[in-house]
From TrEMBL:
GO molecular function, one term: methyltransferase activity
Region of interest: Disordered: 328-359, 603-672, 1376-1398
Low complexity: bias regions: 331-344
Organism: Cladocopium goreaui
UniProt biased composition (Basic residues): 346-357
Biased composition regions of type Polar residues, renumbered to the chain: 617-626
Protein's name according to its UniProt entry: Methyltransferase-like protein 24
One GO BP: methylation
Length: 1398
C-alpha cells in the first residue's frame, strides 16, 4: 500500500482525535494503518490494555512490531506514549462533559479535539483561513447538538468564524447554590449585507458541519456529507431562482427578462427557514446532505416564505414601505433633490414655461397615483379618466397606489371625501403566480372577496337586529391564534365591529377545542353569542397574545388528546381539512341544546302561564336528563325506551332522547370522560342500583375501582348489584352458583379448616382434581345454549373461552365479543396494536388521554442482548425451553422468519433478573432499537385499585359487623395466558444468546410488549365480571392488580363462598400458584398490609423496618450516599406514602435533590434532606406502620380561630374556641421560641411561622390531639395580615423547605398523624376575626377569665420541633467551624497562566 493509499485508509477508518494523538507521538503511517484496522476510535485504543506491559504485548501480537532494532523499539515507545495520552484525553473529556451537563452549557472542545477535526477537513479542502475556519465556540455548540442528535439551524449572525469571534468576553455570576460561575459571553456577529458576506458565512457553516462529520462517524445523518450540498444550497439562494430571480416583460430587449430584486431581508429569512426545515428532516431520519437538497426543491416552502412575501412587499404602497434611501427633505419640510412626477414645466409656481404633456383630470388631483402595477405592467390612464375602447394593451385597474382595484379611479368623485380609495368597498388581494395553473383570474378572486365582505357586514347587522328585538345570535369562526410561522393571519376577532357586539349586545365570546366534542382534531374554534353558556369545555375570554404576537390563551396549549389526523396537506385527492369542515355530532348537539335552553330564538321565547316570556336557566353544557328508569325484567336494555328532557319547555318542542342515542353518542370520536356534559359510560346498562361505591382517601373522593372494568358488578355494594337483571340472568347465575356449591361440599368436607390451610401455605396444589373439574364443567356446559361448542378449549389457551362467551352474552357483557366472535379474538389470537390500533371499550374503560413519551432510540431490527442476559444465557435458554413445552414459544432461524415476516421481523434485546431460586425472569425490550412499542397506542385507560380502594374494601367489610375472611392469590404467568395472532409473532422475537443463530419466537403475550398488560386486563376483567355476575347479591368483594387477586367474604357461609369463588376461577381455567396464597384476618396485597381485624391498612413491619435501617446506615456514613441507591430508597418511600399520607408532603426536598443529581454521584446529602430523613426515622420508630381505614368524622365549619402577633422583642399566640368560648393567650420571647427571632430583626419576619404555631397550640389546648383510632377531618380558619395566605397554601401541598416553617410543619404533621387527624386551613381577612386579634393585643374585654386556659411554654409538647432545632444548630456550628478552619489553612498560590500578547 503506497503512502497516499495509507493516508486515505487512516482518514477513512480512524477518528480525527486518534489521528492527531498518533501523529503527535510520532507513530509511523504504516503502524497507524495497523491501528486503524481494529482500533479506529479513541475509546477502543485507550482500552487496548491496562498497563504499559500489556500495550507492548499488543504491539508485538496485534501490530507485529518486533523489539529487535532501535527503530522498532522507538515505534513501540511512541505507541505506548500515544496510549497514555489517549487515556488522559478521554478521562478529561468525560469530566468536561459531566461538568457542562450539570451547568447546562455546551462543553468546551479541547484543543486536540478541535485541531483533529480541522486537520481532517483541511486534508480534503486545503488550509482554512481565519475567515473560513469556524470559531471554537461555534464548533462546541455544533458538537453538543451532534452528540444529542438535535441539530439546529443557527441564525447567520451566530455562525462565527475564528476571525469574527476574536473579541469574546467572560462574565461571572452566582448560581442557585452560591457558587461563582465564570462563563464566556455568547458572541454575535452581524447579518450579511452583501452576497459576498453571505458566501463567507455559508463557508463557515459548511466547514463546521464537515468537522462534525469527520469526528462523529457513527451518526447516520452525517453519512456521505460533503461540501457539495452546501455549495448547491448557496448557489440556489444567490442564483436566478431566488435573489437573482427574473420575470418576463413586454420590453423589446434581447432577453425579455427583468430582475425583480427581492428584498434582502426576505431572502435571508427564506434561507434561514430552509435550513430549519432541513434540520427538521434530519430529526425525521434523513441525512443532512439529502435534507439540504430536498428543501431547495420544495415548491411549497418557496411559495410560502419567498414568493408570497415578495409579492406582498411589492403590493404595498410607498406610504407603507420605508422611505427611499436617498430621499432628503429641506429645512422647510419640502423635498430637495429630483423633482417628482407631479411637477411640470408649464406656468405656475414651479413651472419653467408651457406644459408639453397632457393635463391631469381635475377629479384625480390630490390623489397618490401610480402608472404601473406592482408587477411592472402599465396602467391605462384613459380608462381611469373615462372610457377606453380596449385597444390600448394596458391594464384596466384603479391608478390609486395600493388599490389597483377593478373600479375606475374617477369613481372617487362620487365619494364625500376624495382622499383615498379606502372608502370604497375594496379588498386588497395579492395574487401569486406560483404552483399549478389557476383556473380563474384576479378579478374572480376580487369579486369573491368583495362578496365575502358584504356577507359578513350583513351578519353583523343581523346580530344587532336580533339583539334589539330580544332574540339570540351566535357567530363562529376559527380561533385567532396570533403569529404562526412568523406571519399573522387575518381574523374576524380582531375587527372592531365584532368586538363591539360584546358591549352593544351583551355578548359573550368563548373558544373550544372541537376534539372535546368528538372531532378527530383539536381545530380551535371561537364563538360569540348573547346566550348564557356555562360549560367546562368552553373557555370564556378573548384571545391573548404576548409581545411577539404569540397566542397565550385562553385555550390551553394541549387539548389532552393524542391525535393522528393532520389538517395540513392532502391525502390522495382530498385536502385534509375537508373532513373537519362539518361540526362533529356532539358539537351540533351542544349548539342545539344551547338554543333550546336560551331565553328566545329569533325574538320568540317560551311563554309562562301569565303569557309573558320567561328566561330559562343557564345552559350547563348538557341536557338535563332524568336517570334511567328501572327496567322491567323482560324488556331490559330496550333501545326504544325514550328518556324525556327534564324541562317541560323542551318537551313542548318535542325533544326526546333514547338510551341507544346515549350509547352511540358515547362511542363517537375523541371523547373525554372527565369533561362534564359528555355521555360516555352508560351507568344504567350495568343493571345495578345507584352509583358505585364512593371511596375516600387523603381528602379525595372517587368511584371504587376493582380492576375488572367500569361495568364490574363488584364496584357496587352487594345489595345494589343486579337489581335490574332479567329473570333469565338471575336464573343462570343461581344455577351456576349451586353447581359450584355442590362441588365444594362434595370435595371439601371442612371448608373452614381447609381455608386456614390454604392461607397458611399448607396446600401445594388445588384440592379440586382434574376429574372433579371436568365433571363440574360438563354440568356448566349443559346450562349453555350450545353445549358442544362450550366444551371446546382453544389451542394455546388455558381458559374455556367459548363457554365463558356464551355465559357472558346472557348478561350482555360489553366485552364478551372479544372472547370468540371478533376476527382477532382471544380464541384466535389478539393483535399487538402495531398494524392497527387497540380497540376502544367505552363500557369497560375510561379513555386514555395521556401517553408516556418513549425514549428516543436509533432503529435496529436486530438488537443485542444486555449484559445481564448475556451472563445468564444458559438460564434464559432453559426458561425458553420450558416456555416451548407450554406452547408459548418456539425456536427458529432468521432466514426462515424473514421469508414469512419480511421487514416486520424484530429481534429485541433481552435482559434478565436473577431470582432467589437461581432461575431468571426474562425482560423483553420492545422499546429500544426495535421500536415496536412506539407503534402501539392505547385508547383505553387501565384503571387499577390503589390505596383508596384498599382502605375502602376494609371499611366496607368492617361496617357489616361480621367477622371477615380474606385471601390473596397470584395468577401464574398472567401476561403469557393471552394468545397473539400469528401475523404479529414477527414483532416478538428474541435470542437467549446474541451470538447464537437460534431465534426464539413468542406466541403469547410478552412482558415488555406494551399491549400485553392491556389484553390481560381485558381478559381478567371478563373473568372477574363472570364471578361478579354469578355471586349476584351474595356478600363478597374482590379486586385485581395485574396478576395479584384479593377477595374478602363475610357472614355465616364465608368459608364456603371463598371456595366457591376460587373454584369458579379454576372452572374457567385460571392457573394459580398455590404456594403464594395468603390471608385470614390480615393479608398483604401488592406490597400493602391489610388488617381487617383492626380496620387498618399500611405497610408490613418488614418493609417499614427496611426504611429505618437504610436511614440509620446513611447516618453512620455521615449521610454520604450514592445517588443511585438514594433513588431506589426514594422510590420505596413514594410507594409507602400512598397509604401513609402523612409522609407524602415531606418527600418534596428529597425528590428535588434526586432529580438534579446524576445516578453515579457519591456525595453528602443537603441539610434539608438530612433533617427530613431524621424526622421520618423518628416517626417510624415511635409510630406503627398502619393507619385507620374507618370513615373520617368530618367537622364542618370553623371550630376555633387563631392569630399571632410578632414584634421586635416578643410574640403573642392567641385563639378561642367557637363552641365553648374557651380561649388562650401565650406570650413569649427569644428564650421561649428562639427559632422565631433573628438578631437585629426580631420576630416580625416570622409571621407565617407564628400563625401556624398558634394553630398547633390551639389543637393541643382544645383537645384535638387524642390518640383514638378513628380518623377525623377538621377545617380551621387562619387570620393573618393582608394577602398572607401562605398557610392555606401550605395545608394544601403540606410541604415546605423554609425554616422555621419546615420544623413547625413537621411537628404539626407528626401530631396529626398520631391523632389520625386531617387538617385544612382556610385564610380569611383579619377584619372577620377581631376577637383573636384583640387577644393578641392582650385586650381580654368580652372574654371570661373563667374560660381562659392557663398555659406556659413548658406545658407544650414540641418534641419533633425541638429535635429539628438542635440538629440544625449542630449543622450550623459544624459549618462555621469548617469555615474557620479553611481561613487558617495555608494559602496556596494560584497557578499562573501565560497571557496572550497585547
Amino acid at each position: 500500500m503506497d503512502p497516499v493509499a495509507q493516508r486515505q485508509f487512516v482518514q477513512t477508518n480512524m477518528d480525527s482525535d486518534l489521528q492527531f494523538i498518533l501523529g503527535e507521538a510520532g507513530v509511523s503511517l504504516e503502524h497507524q494503518v495497523g491501528i486503524a484496522r481494529h482500533y479506529g476510535n479513541l475509546r477502543k485504543f485507550s482500552a487496548l490494555g491496562d498497563d504499559r506491559p500489556a500495550i507492548r504485548t499488543a504491539c508485538a501480537q496485534d501490530f507485529a512490531i518486533p523489539q529487535d532494532t532501535p527503530e522498532h523499539r522507538s515505534q513501540i515507545a511512541s505507541i505506548v506514549a500515544a496510549w497514555e495520552t489517549a487515556k488522559e484525553y478521554l478521562a478529561k473529556e468525560v469530566e468536561l462533559k459531566a461538568e457542562a451537563k450539570v451547568l447546562g452549557q455546551p462543553r468546551v472542545l479541547q484543543i486536540h479535539e478541535r485541531q483533529a477535526m480541522l486537520r481532517a477537513v483541511e486534508a480534503i479542502h486545503g488550509d482554512l483561513g481565519d475567515q473560513e475556519c469556524p470559531s471554537s465556540d461555534y464548533l462546541s455548540i455544533k458538537a453538543e447538538e451532534t452528540e444529542c442528535n438535535e441539530p439546529s439551524a443557527a441564525s447567520l449572525d451566530e455562525i462565527l468564524s475564528k476571525h469574527a469571534s476574536s473579541n469574546s468576553q467572560i462574565q461571572s455570576a452566582v448560581d442557585s447554590s452560591g457558587h461563582i460561575r465564570v462563563t464566556r459571553t455568547k458572541t454575535k456577529g452581524k447579518m450579511p449585507t452583501t452576497t459576498e458576506e453571505f458566501r463567507k458565512i455559508m463557508k463557515v457553516e459548511t466547514y463546521a458541519w464537515l468537522c462534525m462529520a469527520s469526528r462523529y462517524r457513527a451518526k447516520h445523518w452525517l453519512h456521505g456529507l460533503t461540501a457539495e450540498p452546501f455549495q448547491k444550497f448557496t448557489e440556489y439562494i444567490l442564483g436566478d431562482r431566488v435573489f437573482g430571480i427574473q420575470i418576463p416583460t413586454s420590453s423589446s430587449d434581447t432577453t425579455g427578462q427583468t430582475k425583480v430584486k427581492p428584498d434582502w431581508s426576505i431572502v435571508l429569512a427564506y434561507e434561514h427557514k430552509l435550513r430549519k426545515e432541513a434540520m427538521k428532516r434530519v430529526l425525521e431520519g434523513y441525512t443532512l446532505a439529502d435534507s439540504l437538497l430536498a428543501v431547495i426543491r420544495d415548491p411549497d416552502l418557496k411559495e410560502a416564505y419567498f414568493t408570497t412575501p415578495v409579492a406582498l412587499k411589492s403590493a404595498m404602497s410607498e406610504t407603507q414601505q420605508q422611505p427611499h434611501k436617498w430621499q432628503r427633505f429641506n429645512s422647510k419640510g419640502g423635498f430637495s433633490g429630483k423633482q417628482s412626477q407631479g411637477f411640470s414645466k408649464g406656468k405656475g409656481k414651479f413651472s419653467k414655461g408651457k406644459s408639453k404633456g397632457k393635463t391631469m383630470d381635475s377629479r384625480l388631483k390630490g390623489l397618490n397615483l401610480a402608472w404601473r402595477t406592482p408587477d411592472g405592467r402599465e396602467l391605462c390612464f384613459q380608462w381611469n379618466n373615462g372610457e377606453c375602447d380596449g385597444s390600448c394593451g394596458r391594464v384596466h385597474q384603479c391608478r390609486v397606489k395600493g388599490c389597483y382595484g377593478t373600479h375606475k379611479a374617477d369613481a372617487i368623485a362620487a365619494l364625500p371625501s376624495r382622499a383615498a380609495c379606502d372608502e370604497l368597498p375594496l379588498v386588497k388581494v395579492a395574487y401569486l403566480f406560483a404552483g399549478k395553473r389557476r383556473h380563474s383570474d384576479v378579478a374572480a378572486f376580487l369579486r369573491k372577496a368583495e362578496m365575502a365582505n358584504t356577507f359578513f357586514e350583513r351578519c353583523i347587522r343581523a346580530c344587532h337586529v336580533v339583539s334589539d328585538t330580544g332574540g339570540c345570535f351566535i357567530l363562529e369562526h376559527p380561533e385567532d391564534l396570533g403569529t404562526v410561522e412568523g406571519e399573522q393571519p387575518g381574523s374576524i376577532w380582531q375587527w372592531a365591529d365584532v368586538l363591539a357586539l360584546i358591549t352593544d349586545c351583551k355578548a359573550t365570546s368563548f373558544a373550544v377545542h372541537q376534539c372535546k366534542f368528538g372531532a378527530p382534531t383539536p381545530k380551535p374554534t371561537r364563538f360569540m353569542t348573547n346566550m348564557a353558556v356555562d360549560d367546562k369545555r368552553c373557555y370564556k375570554a378573548l384571545p391573548k397574545f404576548d409581545k411577539l404576537g404569540l397566542y397565550k390563551g385562553p385555550l390551553p396549549k394541549q387539548c389532552g388528546h393524542v391525535h393522528t389526523h393532520k389538517l395540513i396537506g392532502r391525502t390522495a385527492a382530498q385536502w385534509n381539512t375537508s373532513p373537519s369542515a362539518a361540526y362533529p355530532p356532539k358539537l351540533c348537539q351542544f349548539l342545539a341544546d344551547l338554543i333550546l335552553n336560551a331565553s328566545a330564538s329569533c325574538g320568540r321565547g317560551v311563554k309562562d302561564k301569565s303569557g309573558s316570556r320567561k328566561r330559562q336557566q343557564t345552559f350547563t353544557g348538557h341536557t338535563s336528563l332524568q336517570p334511567l328508569p328501572k327496567r322491567a325484567k323482560d324488556t331490559a336494555g330496550s333501545a326504544e325506551q325514550a328518556i324525556d328532557v327534564e324541562s317541560s319547555d323542551d318537551q313542548s318542542l318535542g325533544v326526546h332522547r333514547t338510551a341507544a342515542d346515549r350509547t352511540e353518542q358515547g362511542q363517537m370520536g375523541c371523547d373525554d370522560p372527565d369533561v362534564e356534559g359528555e355521555t360516555q359510560f352508560d351507568l344504567g346498562a350495568c343493571r345495578n342500583t345507584g352509583r358505585p361505591i364512593v371511596v375516600e382517601w387523603d381528602r379525595y373522593h372517587r368511584d371504587f375501582i376493582d380492576g375488572f372494568g367500569l361495568c364490574s358488578p363488584a364496584r357496587w355494594r352487594p345489595s345494589h348489584r343486579g337489581t335490574h337483571r332479567s329473570d333469565g340472568m338471575v336464573k343462570l347465575a343461581n344455577q351456576t352458583f349451586e353447581l359450584l356449591v355442590e362441588t365444594v361440599k362434595a370435595t371439601i368436607p371442612d371448608v373452614r379448616k381447609e381455608a386456614f390451610r390454604l392461607v397458611t401455605g399448607k396446600l401445594e396444589h388445588s384440592p379440586f382434581s382434574e376429574e372433579t373439574l371436568e365433571r363440574l364443567r360438563n354440568k356448566w356446559f349443559s346450562l349453555l345454549p350450545d353445549q358442544q361448542e362450550a366444551s371446546i378449549r382453544d389451542v394455546g389457551q388455558p381458559f374455556f373461552l367459548r363457554a365463558m362467551a356464551q355465559w357472558l352474552k346472557v348478561f350482555e357483557d360489553p366485552d364478551a365479543k372479544w372472547l370468540v366472535d371478533e376476527e382477532d379474538s382471544f380464541a384466535t389470537g389478539v393483535c399487538l396494536g402495531v398494524e392497527k390500533p387497540l380497540p376502544r371499550s367505552v363500557q369497560v374503560c375510561h379513555q386514555k388521554l395521556k401517553h408516556r413519551r418513549l425514549d428516543d432510540t436509533e432503529f435496529a431490527a436486530i438488537a443485542q442482548n444486555y449484559p445481564s442476559a448475556q451472563m445468564s444465557s444458559k438460564e434464559l435458554e432453559d426458561k425458553f425451553r420450558e416456555e416451548e413445552s407450554l406452547g408459548r414459544m418456539f425456536p427458529s432461524k432468521v432466514g426462515v422468519l424473514q421469508q414469512e415476516y419480511g421487514s416486520d421481523l424484530r429481534i429485541a434485546a433481552m435482559a434478565a433478573i436473577q431470582k432467589p431460586d437461581g432461575s431468571v425472569r426474562p425482560l423483553h425490550d420492545a422499546t429500544h432499537s426495535v421500536m415496536v412499542n412506539h407503534s402501539i397506542k392505547y385508547q383505553d385507560k387501565i384503571d387499577c385499585p390503589g390505596p383508596a380502594e384498599i382502605a375502602s374494601i376494609v371499611r366496607e367489610t368492617s361496617e357489616t359487623k361480621d367477622a371477615p375472611f380474606c385471601v390473596s392469590a397470584d395468577i401464574r404467568a398472567a401476561h403469557r395466558l393471552v394468545k397473539v395472532r400469528r401475523k404479529d409473532w414477527g414483532y416478538m422475537c428474541c435470542k437467549a444468546d446474541s451470538g447464537s443463530d437460534t431465534v426464539w419466537v413468542n406466541k403469547t403475550g410478552t412482558f415488555g410488549i406494551s399491549s400485553a398488560p392491556y389484553w390481560w386486563f381485558k381478559l381478567a376483567g371478563l373473568l372477574g365480571r363472570f364471578i361478579g355476575y354469578m355471586f349476584h347479591q351474595r356478600w363478597f368483594m374482590h379486586m385485581i392488580y395485574v396478576d395479584d387477586l384479593h377477595g374478602v367474604f363475610t357472614g355465616e357461609r364465608k368459608f364456603l363462598h371463598l371456595w366457591v369463588w376460587l373454584l369458579a376461577y379454576e372452572m374457567a381455567g385460571t392457573p394459580f400458584g398455590y404456594h403464594k396464597f395468603k390471608g385470614g384476618f390480615a393479608s398483604e396485597f401488592v406490597g400493602f398490609q391489610i388488617r381487617y381485624d383492626k380496620t387498618e391498612v399500611g405497610i408490613s413491619f418488614k418493609r417499614g423496618d427496611w426504611i429505618v435501617q437504610w436511614i440509620s446506615k446513611a447516618e453512620q456514613n455521615k449521610f454520604v450516599v450514592q445517588a443511585r441507591e438514594f433513588t431506589e430508597f426514594l422510590g420505596r418511600l413514594g410507594f409507602i406514602s400512598q397509604l401513609l399520607i402523612w409522609l407524602k408532603p415531606h418527600l418534596a426536598p428529597l425528590f428535588s435533590w434526586s432529580a438534579v443529581t446524576a445516578a453515579g454521584t457519591v456525595c453528602r446529602l443537603p441539610d434539608t434532606v438530612i433533617l427530613t430523613l431524621l424526622y421520618i426515622s423518628k416517626e417510624f420508630t415511635r409510630e406503627t406502620f398502619l393507619v385507620s381505614a374507618r370513615r373520617p368524622v368530618c367537622f364542618q365549619g370553623d371550630q376555633f380561630r387563631t392569630d399571632a402577633k410578632c414584634t421586635d422583642t416578643y410574640i403573642v399566640l392567641a385563639g378561642w374556641e367557637l363552641s365553648s368560648k374557651r380561649w388562650f393567650a401565650l406570650k413569649g420571647g427569644p428564650a421561649d421560641a428562639p427559632y422565631l427571632f433573628k438578631p437585629g430583626m426580631g420576630a416580625q419576619w416570622a409571621s407565617t411561622s407564628a400563625e401556624l404555631l398558634a394553630t398547633l397550640v390551639a389543637l393541643q389546648l382544645f383537645g384535638w390531639f387524642d390518640t383514638s383510632g378513628g380518623r377525623k377531618a377538621l377545617e380551621v380558619s387562619l387570620f393573618g395580615g393582608t394577602d398572607n395566605r401562605a398557610n392555606e397554601s401550605l395545608s394544601e401541598k403540606r410541604s415546605t423547605t423554609k425554616w422555621p416553617l419546615m420544623g413547625i410543619n413537621m411537628q404539626l404533621s407528626s401530631m396529626l398523624s398520631r391523632s389520625r387527624l386531617s387538617l385544612g386551613l382556610r385564610w380569611r381577612p383579619r377584619d372577620e376575626n377581631k376577637e383573636a386579634d384583640q387577644l393578641t393585643n392582650e385586650d381580654f374585654t368580652g372574654f371570661s377569665m373563667d374560660h381562659r386556659i392557663a398555659v406556659s411554654w413548658a406545658d407544650l409538647r414540641f418534641d419533633v420541633l425541638e429535635d429539628m432545632v438542635r440538629t440544625r444548630e449542630a449543622f450550623d456550628q459544624a459549618r462555621q467551624q469548617a469555615k474557620a478552619e479553611a481561613k487558617q489553612a495555608p494559602k496556596v498560590k494560584p497557578k499562573k497562566f501565560d497571557k496572550s500578547p497585547w
